[in-house]
Amino acid sequence: MNLNLNSISRFALDIFYPNRCPCCNGFISYDKYICEDCIQSMQDPTDKLCKFCGFALERCKCGQGIFYDRAFTCYTYDGLARKGVLSLKNASSLNFGYHVANILSERIKNEVIKYDIIVPIPMHIRKKLKRGYNQAEVIALEISKSLNVPIDKNALRVKYSSNVQHKLSKKDRILNANEIYYAGKSNLKDKYIILIDDIMTTGSTLNVCSNILHSMGAKSVIVAVATSDQLKT
């Protein structure tokens, strides 16, 4: 059996901690991230979203102060996909992050542009230490391996905030994002950047951070997220 190091590690770990689907919690093979039933059940909203701004087609925001050029997503943020995101946020499993990273990588590969840098939305060190990792970084690292594009974790910085972004109103999310994210010291002049996060709700975090990256000299910014909440009415 020809297994790479990662596969061997997953096989060995599965003996003591059987692999489970992060969406339904059912047992799955050691070399799978999600069960096939859940993959088939989750909704891909791509055809219902504007491919540029990432908002629902009937609420397209193109030309209305959007600072990124393209938006990629995998699933609608509901049902099983929501459980997958929560498993990633709650540190119970990284499988969902690996799964969506593979999907996003394949979609970005079809782009004509060669991207220079991958930037995950940052998490304050206090929150990162509590969780053990930044879920956006988990996704970014897998995309980096697939696309052979380096990650820059220092391009964006974040101040500590006790606010939970997804619990704020749309107006407060924009204000909060503007207050807590700021530019790092990276040289981004004329760079083509992939900005990564786990969910797009109002898009305020992604838009504010895209604007910051442009202010640092970025030539182009696209966003890639695991899930989108844009079809919520």
Characteristic terms for this protein:
233 residues; four-stranded parallel sheet; two-stranded antiparallel sheet; 37% helix
Write up what this structure looks like:
The protein has helices at residues 5-16, 36-41, 79-89, 95-109, 125-131, 135-147, 170-180, 204-215, and strands at 70-76, 117-120, 156-158, 181-183, 192-200, 220-228. It is α/β, with parallel strands linked by helices and 233 residues long. It has a 4-stranded parallel beta sheet, sandwiched between helices. A two-stranded antiparallel sheet has the order 3-4. Helix 8 (204-215) links the parallel strand 5 and strand 6 (220-228). Helix 4 (95-109) packs across helix 6 (135-147) and helix 7 runs parallel beside helix 8 (204-215). The termini are far apart.
Neighbour order of strands in the largest sheet? 1-6-5-2
User: Which percent bin holds the helix content?
Assistant: 25-40%
The total count of helices amounts to 8
How large is the share of residues in beta strands?
15-25%
Mean pLDDT: 90
Give the distance, in angstroms, between the N- and C-terminal Cα atoms: 50 Å
Q: What class do helices, strands and sheet pairing give? A: alpha/beta
Largest sheet: 4 strands, parallel
Please state the CA-atom Rg, rounded to the nearest Å: 17 Å
Runs in which pLDDT lies below 50 for 5 or more consecutive residues are none
The geometry reads as globular
| Helix/strand order | HHEHHEHHEHEEHE
Count the E strands: 6
